[in-house]
Every structure is written in structure tokens, then in C-alpha cells.
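C-alpha cells as discussed.
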């Protein structure tokens, strides 16, 4: 019986720690609050909107133990749709701190940013933080100006196809998978058997084709010299200074410098308002924390054991720097 009491005790403790306010703390995230504008800096005319893109880029919802959060793609799209209704927004500052993610999710965010820029005429500036690699760089390409932090790691312009393989383990434990298929390649990529030579060639062709798209977009947006593009296409990462010398970024500076550049390019005064959207008020908010907030409150901060479980291990094509992602 004592063991049965613990879940109720923990839930009661969480409720007390959050001030017993169920309107601010929605345990299961069933009633999301609408996005609201909060001013981070300035009192003058015109606005710079700050959008923070942090973590792995995915179009899958973030499934936690007690609730499901919207995917990064969904949140970015909602953020930009909301921003489009405000003609006072003259610049969009995207703060990127990401190792990348899936090919499709990265491409969707790239498209959403490009479309928003085209429809509104808003100036787009990217401020790279610690990491803006692979898909994190891909989504930065529509920017009119890219500023890297002095310690930014960026680049990794390429594609990797990750897929699990458990055939060796199955043989050891005496388990097999029987397959009936309509075509010789229907089960290519199956984790239950090693790939054939023909399948390896096909997967490499798919990977190279997707990588060529990435490379072409870099050439289109960054206007690199052939020798620069060849070095970038090795898919290695670069520190800020080398990224600047290769033309991947325009300037090295801090977030305040990126805000000033956004105001300058948008012809805004130095006291123009810098804003962010949140679903609820964030105390002592600054430009370093303008992310879209979780809808139900940060339960994991109170009980770390309830943090999201990262499934990982799914076969997919990625614009990602694997060294920065735990699989």
C-alpha cells in the first residue's frame, strides 16, 4: 500500500510547487494557450521578431510520458503564420542551435521561412549559437544575413542514411524473420538482414541525390567559389572563422550584434522593439530565451525522471551531424 501512495504524493508535490495553479500548469497539455507577444527590448517603432530553433529538427510530435508536444515543424509554421498578421514586424531574427534532423523536416522549415520572407518582404537574419550544423545550416540558407557566434560549429553540408541492423543478434539468439515480397527490392533496408551489394548502391544513389540538393541550395544562396563549394561538400564541420572564410556565414559576433544588424537591414531605429511569442509569460525574459514555451508547463524540470524518452534508431535520411546527436 505504501508504494501505491508515492504517485499521488509526487503529483500533489508538483501541484504545490507550481502554486496550485491549474490554469498555468496543464499536466497533460490539453488546452494550449494562444501565442502572445512579449517585448524583450525597446519602445520605438517597428519590430524585430525573434524565433528560436533549438534541438533536433523533426516533424514528429515530441511524445513525453504525460503529454505530447507539437513538432518543431508545426511550432515554427504556427509562429510564422502568427507573425504574418503583424505589419509592424520588419525583421525576423532566427536563433539557431541545432545539429540538424531529418531531410524532410529541415526542408519544410526552409520552405516555410522562404515563403514567409517572400510573402511579407521581412528581412531575415540568422544568429548561430553553439551549433548550426547540417539541417541547422540548411534552414539558415534563406537568411539575408548569417551571423555566427565566435564559438559556433557549423557546416556538415551533407546527408546520412541511418538505419538499424539486428540480423547478427537474431542469428545469435536463434530468431528469424520470414518475408513474402512482391518485388526483389520491396524489403530493401530491412533491419533483419544485411543489405545486398545492389541495395548498397541504390541507397548511396539516394543519399547522393539528396546531398546534391543541399549543395545546390548552398551554391544558390551563398554564391561560393567552386573551390569553396568543393570543400564544403566534404560535409565536415567548421568553426566560425573558417566558416566565414568559406562564405558560409557573413560575420562573427554576438546575439546583440545580430539584433543590431537586423535593425540596420530593416531600416529600423536603434530603439525598435525586439519581440518574441510565448504561450505564457516568462519572467525576466531576454533575447537568449525567446523560444516557444511548452504548453503545459515544464514538468520535466520539476521531475527529471519524467523527461521525454528519445526513441531513436529509426531508419531515415538525415541532414544531421551525428556526433552531436545521441542515437
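Sequence:
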Amino acid at each position: 500500500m505504501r508504494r501505491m501512495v508515492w504517485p499521488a504524493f509526487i503529483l500533489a508535490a508538483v501541484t504545490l510547487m507550481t502554486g496550485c495553479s491549474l490554469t498555468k500548469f496543464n499536466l497533460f497539455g490539453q488546452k494550449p494557450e494562444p501565442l502572445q507577444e512579449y517585448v524583450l527590448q525597446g519602445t520605438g517603432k517597428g519590430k524585430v521578431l525573434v524565433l528560436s530553433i533549438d534541438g533536433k529538427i523533426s516533424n514528429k510530435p515530441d511524445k513525453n510520458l504525460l503529454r505530447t508536444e507539437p513538432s518543431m515543424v508545426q511550432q515554427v509554421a504556427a509562429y510564422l503564420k502568427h507573425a504574418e498578421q503583424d505589419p509592424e514586424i520588419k525583421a525576423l531574427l532566427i536563433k539557431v542551435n541545432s545539429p540538424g534532423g531529418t531531410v524532410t523536416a529541415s526542408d519544410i522549415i526552409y520552405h516555410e521561412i522562404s515563403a514567409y520572407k517572400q510573402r511579407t518582404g521581412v528581412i531575415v537574419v540568422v544568429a548561430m549559437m553553439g551549433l548550426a550544423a547540417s539541417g541547422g545550416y540548411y534552414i539558415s540558407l534563406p537568411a539575408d544575413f548569417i551571423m555566427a557566434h565566435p564559438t559556433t560549429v557549423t557546416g556538415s553540408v551533407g546527408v546520412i542514411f541511418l538505419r538499424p541492423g539486428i540480423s547478427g543478434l537474431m542469428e545469435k539468439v536463434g530468431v528469424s524473420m520470414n518475408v513474402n515480397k512482391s518485388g526483389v527490392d520491396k524489403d530493401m533496408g530491412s533491419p533483419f538482414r544485411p543489405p545486398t551489394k545492389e541495395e548498397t548502391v541504390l541507397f548511396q544513389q539516394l543519399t547522393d541525390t539528396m546531398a546534391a540538393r543541399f549543395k545546390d541550395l548552398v551554391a544558390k544562396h551563398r554564391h561560393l567559389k567552386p573551390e569553396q563549394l568543393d570543400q564544403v561538400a566534404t560535409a565536415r564541420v567548421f568553426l566560425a572563422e573558417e566558416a566565414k572564410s568559406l562564405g558560409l556565414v557573413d560575420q562573427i559576433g554576438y546575439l546583440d550584434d545580430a539584433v543590431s544588424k537586423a535593425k540596420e537591414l530593416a531600416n529600423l531605429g536603434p530603439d525598435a522593439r525586439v519581440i518574441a511569442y510565448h504561450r505564457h509569460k516568462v519572467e525576466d525574459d531576454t533575447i537568449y530565451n525567446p523560444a516557444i514555451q511548452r504548453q503545459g508547463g515544464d514538468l520535466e524540470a520539476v521531475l527529471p525522471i519524467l523527461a521525454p524518452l528519445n526513441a531513436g534508431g529509426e531508419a531515415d535520411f538525415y541532414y544531421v551531424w551525428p556526433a552531436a546527436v545521441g542515437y
